[in-house]
Amino acid sequence: MYHAKLGDCMLTNCTTKESLTAEYLNSRECDIPIVQRYSGVDAGMLIPFIAASILFTIRMAAKSQRLGGGWGADDFTLITAYCLAIAVFALNVSMIQHGFGKNMWDILPQTNITEAYKRFYAFVLVYKALISLAKISVCLFLLRIFQSSIFRYITYTMIVVNSAIAVTWILVDSFHCIPVHLSWTGWENEESGKCIDFITSTFINGFVNIAVDAIMVSMPLYEVLKLKLSLRKKLGVAVMFGMGLVLTAVGIARVIILSSNDSTENPTFEMEPLNYWSVIECQVAIICACLPATRAFVVHYLPGMLGYSGNASSGGFHTSSNTRSKAGPAANSSKLGFISKSMPYHIDTTATSPQNASDSLVKLVEVHSGRT
């Protein structure tokens, strides 16, 4: 009863800053502990970040040795996305250091609230750009592998969709308050202006991204299932592409977290779980985009790790720009069995000897239009 009356009194007679000060003093008088939801560098965020960094480094190493098909637009897009992933991680750490994850009234000095919101403003914009860039990178990679006309049409459409999502929500989040500086000073309630409902906008963006994720995962899986390969080989390639479902799951978790936290009364405390899962989602997006090249790198240097025997020096992904005829590659493979399907895409299956055919390596090979 006392707290209810105190709250009504503060809302009626006090400024926001005065209300927060009164709430802080009341909490200290009642020995209510200061709660910090996450530490600055939490293991749940740090481990995915380290994993993403390792796989990104492996991808760069693989590309430098042309193990993953050589350099392409997908690589440069992902390099940009990874730089943004570093920024997302750093911004979240800085937000926590300035008070995110605490009750708003426990953040002292109160200028830290403004500083935290400035970083949150940048965090949201970088997050939206990163997620779309990572998905565009995956689409560009798929265009280097699969040559089906329908598949390529759908993939180009997804590139346009992801680009539109990024541009739309970056603009929405950039100007969700007018004047713009209310995005980080609006909590003071000292200046008039207008802001759209950030939570509703974030919900819509989350659901759109989940739908896009589902489509992008199903695209390569459908193409793989059409191949005339053994079930074991199909599963091996399908599992790699199907790892995109992990990104979908994280996106769903992020939406659930958003719906379960009321961010209107105590935003610095209630919004941090959303930031937490957003950081994880960004790192998982980088991890998923790096898996094909990482697989090529591992097969080249550690073939036994993935159950392949013999010399797999050609890697899991490589450019087939020298392929001129059906007989050419086979003629140059003295100890390799070679099976290829050039349309609508090119698949190589190699083994060290006929008796090791069960351990053969499936390689998705980049096919340039106009070549068979």
UniProtKB/TrEMBL annotation:
Transmembrane recorded as keyword: yes
Record's keyword terms, sorted: Membrane, Transmembrane, Transmembrane helix
Domain Rhodopsin: 59-298
The keyword Repressor is annotated on this UniProt entry: no
Mode of membrane association: Multi-pass membrane protein
Primary localization: membrane
Domain of life: Eukaryota
GO cellular component terms, semicolon-separated: membrane
Family matches, as InterPro entries: Rhodopsin_dom_fungi, SAT4-like
Pfam annotation, one family: Fung_rhodopsin
Location within or outside the cell: Membrane
Transmembrane regions: 38-58, 79-100, 120-143, 150-172, 207-225, 237-257, 277-298
Family: Belongs to the SAT4 family.
Protein name: Rhodopsin domain-containing protein
Organism: Penicillium atrosanguineum
